Amino acid sequence: MQTRTLGTTGPAVSALGLGAMGMSGAYGEADRAESVATVHAALEADVTLIDTGDFYAMGHNELLLAEALRGRDRDSYRLSVKFGMLRGPVPEFGGMDSRPEAVKNFLAYSLTRLGTDHIDIYRPARLDPAVPIEETVGAVKEMIDAGYVRHLGLSEVDAATIRRAHAVHPVADLQIEYSLISRAVEADVLPTLRELGIGLTAYGVLSRGLISGHWSAGRTAGPGDSRGVSPRFSSGNVEHNLALVEALRRVADAKRCTVAQLAIAWVAAQGDDIVPLVGARTRERLAEALPAMEMGLTVDDLAEIEKAVPPGTARGDRYPSAFMSGLGVGN
User: Fold this and answer.
1) Is the pLDDT of residue 299 over 80?
2) Rg of the chain's alpha carbons, rounded to an integer?
C-alpha cells in the first residue's frame, strides 16, 4: 500500500482509508463479525487510516472499532474521529455543539469508547453556527498540547472557515465529500487547501454505492438505510444517475477493472494530497477497492472518464434538504 501525507503538518497514512460509518447501521443492518473481519483485513492490507464519528449509531461505531483494534500496535494505525453532532434516541439529528467545554466532553467519551489514550485526527463534524470556529479550534489545540489529540482536522466547511481555523492552529486535513458526481470542492476549497498545505480526505467516493456499479434502478433501500431519503437515489433521479454509471462502466470495461475501482482511482488521481475513504462493510467490497490504488490512470483515461461523467450532470442533492444548509459547499 502506498502512503500519502495529510498536508504539511499531518501524519503519513495509507493512500486509501477505511470509513467505518456503514458498519453501524447507516445503510441498514450490518454484520458485526464481518465488520470486525473487514477492519482486520484492512489492517493486514496496510490500510492505516480509519475514520469514524462519535455520533455513528450513538457510540456503537467507536465500540466496534475498539473491539476490532484490540491488541493491535497503537502506532500501526491512525484514528480520525468527528465530533459535535447531536443525536437523540429516535435517532434524530439535533444540530451541532462545538463549544470548548463540549469538545473536551466529547473527546473524553471517545477516548473511553475507543480504548485509547489519544486520537490521531480530531475534527468537528460540521460548522456550529453558534460557536466561532476559533473557539472550537482553540479547545482542540488545548487537547493537542495535553497529548490527547495529535492533529486538527475539519469537515465539510468552506474556504473562509478553513482559513480562520488554520490561523489558530495548523489544520492537517479537511474531510469532505468528493467523487465523480460531487465536485463542488474543486472551485474554492481545494485551491485553498493547496495554498495552505492542508490535505483532503475524500469520503463518499462511491456516492454511498450509487456509482459503485452494484446499485440498480429497481433496488429499494431497506429498513434503516439512509439512502431511502437520499435525493440522488429517489425515483426520477436514480435512473438518470445510473445512466451515468453505465457510461462509466464502458470505460471500466475497456480498462478491465470494475466501476468502483475506476471511481476510486479517479479521486486518487486528483492529487497526491488526497486520500480516498472507502466505506467497505465487507471483506469482499474491501478487496474490490484495494487494487484501485495501483491503477495509474493516464491522461487519456481521465479524459474518457470526464466524458462519461461530465461535472454537474448528476441529479439530486447529495444530502436531504434539511442537511444541505450545514455544508460548506454544495454538490
Assistant:
1) yes
2) 19
